[in-house]
Amino acid sequence: MRGRLPNLLSNIFAGDLAPLGGPVVSDRLSGYVRAEQMRLVKRNSSGLMLANICNAVVLMVAVMGSADAVVAQAWCGVIVFVAGFYGWRSRFSRRITPPQTVSRLATQRLCASAFLLGSLWAVVPAVFFPAAAHSTQLVMTCIVAGMLAGGALAFATLPIAAIAFIGPLLLGAMTCIVRIGDFTYALVAILLAAYTVVLLRSVVLHALEFTQRVVQRVEAETAVRHDALTHLPNRIAFNEGLRLAQSRLDLTGHAFAVLLLDLDHFKEVNDQFGHPVGDDYLAQIAARLRRSTRDIDMLARIGGDEFALVAADIDSADAAFAIARQVCDVFAEPFLIEGHLLTGSVSVGIALAPRDGAGPNELVRHADVALYRAKKSGPCSIRFFEPGDDKTARDNQELLRDLEGAVARNELFLVYQPILHLADDRITAFEALLRWDHPQRGLIGPSQFIGLAEESGLIHAIGDWVIQQACADLACWPADIRMAVNFSVAQLQSASVLPGVLRALAQSGIAPSRLEIEITESMLISKYATAGTTLNALLELGVTVALDDFGTGFSSLTYLRKLPFSHIKIDQSFVADMLVQPDSAAIVKSVLSLASDMKIGVVAEGIETAEQLAYFKGTACEAAQGYFIGMPMRAAQASALLGVVSKSSSQAA
Ligand code: C2E
Ligand code: MG
Ligand code: MG
Question: Which ligand is nearest to the CA of 624?
Fold first, then answer.
């Protein structure tokens, strides 16, 4: 019992709404809730402080000629100083990126500031009102009423701060009314009390609803990063952890290692004992791996039988090898699952940062090359990335040399995949997808060369060709057909992309609203600072932007607020697993519901079966795309599909 009351009070002053019927949340989650509450309060605080200063200055003028004018004016001066200080502090902190979580102490401090300001104002009616002239009393009444309403609005997400501000003000007003002792003033007191109750009730209701929404959003974000089977972080969380480790390395020089783990013969376990045993096996392995790794390491399950580890503070191959050995030792004891004794092993590929890669993508790619070699060496092998052995690297160099002249030699072409609008079962758009007809290697897909083009800077010329060609082909199709074009981050970071898009629109004569730009979410997060300006300029032209491959990168729903996306494209991996994997289905459902809350359309990618299409037809999903609806096709075929006689340049290709 002892300590419960102080605890409760400290929770209430930290913004906890559970005592008022709000959601009961974990400590971690409450930090996110507080951050959101504070973000909105801070957004309003400059305005509120300005109002405080204006009111105090007006009052300074109004009290001129009163008996206690000097004291009252000095008091107003104190208010101007305090409000000015708070206003300056909040403007300053707004320049800093808002934190993801906020401590209880920060919220308690905010309540204390609200209380101080409310108390300063409370002195005005309590001390200066009775002796003031009628006209001055009128000014004071307006100011107190205005402050009550303004305070409630400004602290609408944090009822306790609203109470801390309004409470003293109300008390001051009541003291003044008691001091005057007039019946008419008693009526004013009743009115004031009634207004305050109504105001506070609305504040509490608004705050409860707001908090509920924040909790739902944060829980959805957490679910998206969690592997339901092993309770480990999933690939999305791994990518984030890796990026964090890279930022830490860039900032402080702390090296790290990336270990990719692949179970040996896992398929045989599944085939021989069935999937439930396979699942249990994975869960037990995950539990043992967690015990064998350090708290500072990030262990994740990134695929069926693939795990990954970001090992922090590893500055030598020996240290990384020791961790890999520990991982292998996890399999020294057999696993007992449903009466079966299973023995297993794991192969490990290691890349050391910064030695083996300039960034997260390269590190993972190189750890994967090492894992490939480990797998070839037989079960239970550990291999480091070795640049000399990297045939892929040599292959890429050759490919890059060929890519340099590919546009000039007319080897690139576009195919168009239809996008079906689900409500009226009609093709309303196409996505332009790049292909390379390599003279020796044959047809090459974009995933094999876009990365190279980005790294080498060739993406600018290629991207420009893509947008010109896509717009030229779109010009031959009916005016209600739209075109989605994929853009790389590097393109959006360059100033030349905007003139390129303008030229494509002008030459083809198509309306900008028919063009949609697809960007992937990983790019949005890592490069928003540099690509945001171009994206906003494109949006101003009337071009729309879609968020591609949603769910594979960072899935930070926070970023959805940064740009007015017209569509989110649910990545095909979720669509593929959705009908068999409950966690994929859960992700699809939560994306659909969040997108509908945010009024963003959803396009489901990778529809390969009638069942998948039927599923989305029964949801709020706006459109779908996939082999079942239509394969990517040449412009001439797309024209035929639309019933148009094709004139486009690429039809002959
Ligand atoms: P994306 O934008 O997500 O494009 C969809 C990819 O899924 C395409 O692969 C498409 O052929 C494939 N796909 C469509 N329906 C299905 C299906 O039902 N099942 C399966 N398994 N796959 C399906 P593609 O053409 O190989 O393109 C891969 C990625 O390359 C694209 O992913 C896009 O991110 C990038 N890309 C393509 N064209 C360009 C381009 O012109 N510029 C840039 N920067 N990137 C491009
Ligand atoms: Mg795309
Ligand atoms: Mg996609």
Answer: 1
CB-ligand 1 contact for 218 (6 Å cutoff): no
Determine which residue's CA is closest to atom 25 belonging to ligand 1. 433
Please check whether residue 71 is in contact with residue 132, taking contact to mean a CB–CB distance below 8 angstroms.
no
Most confident of 99-108, 219-228, 403-412: 403-412
Task: List the single range of 2-6, 156-160, 568-572 with lowest mean pLDDT.
Answer: 2-6
* CA 269 to ligand 1 center in whole angstroms: 33
Topology of the domain covering 235-385: Alpha-Beta Plaits (3.30.70)
pLDDT band at 650 (very low <50, low <70, confident <90, very high): very low
Q: How far is the CA of 194 from the centre of ligand 1 (A)?
A: 61
- Ligand at minimal distance from the CA of 571 is 3
Nearest CA to 124 out of 182, 169, 84 is that of 169
* Shortest-distance Cα residue to atom 37 of ligand 1: 433
- DSSP lists the bridge partners of residue 342 as 335
Most ligand 1 atoms within 8 A of CB, residue of 414, 433, 569, 574 to mutate: 433
Residue 2, pLDDT > 60, answer no
Residue 516: closest CA among 494, 489, 536, 545: 545
- Give Dmax over CA atoms of the chain in angstroms: 99
**pLDDT tens-digit profile of 504-550?**
999 999 999 999 999 987 666 656 667 778 888 999 999 999 999 88
Cα dihedral 127→133→139→140 (10° resolution) = 10
Architecture field, domain 397-642:
Alpha-Beta Barrel (3.20)
Average pLDDT over residues 606-622: 95
Q: Tell me, using a 6 A CB cutoff, whether residue 379 lines ligand 1.
A: no
Q: Which residues surround ligand 2, an ion (CB under 5 A)?
A: 486, 518, 548
Selection from 446, 449, 23 nearest residue 207 by Cα = 23
Cα angle, residue 500 at apex, residues 496 and 502 outer, rounded to 5°: 120
Distance CA 392, CA 619 (A): 43
Beta strands in 290-373 (DSSP E): 298-301, 306-312, 335-337, 340-342, 346-353
Testing ligand 1's pocket by substitution, the residue of 437, 458, 486 carrying the most ligand atoms inside 8 A of its CB is: 486
Is 0.85 surpassed by the pTM of this model?
A: no
Asked whether residue 652 carries a pLDDT value surpassing 50, the answer given is no
List the domain boundaries for the chain. 4-224, 235-385, 397-642
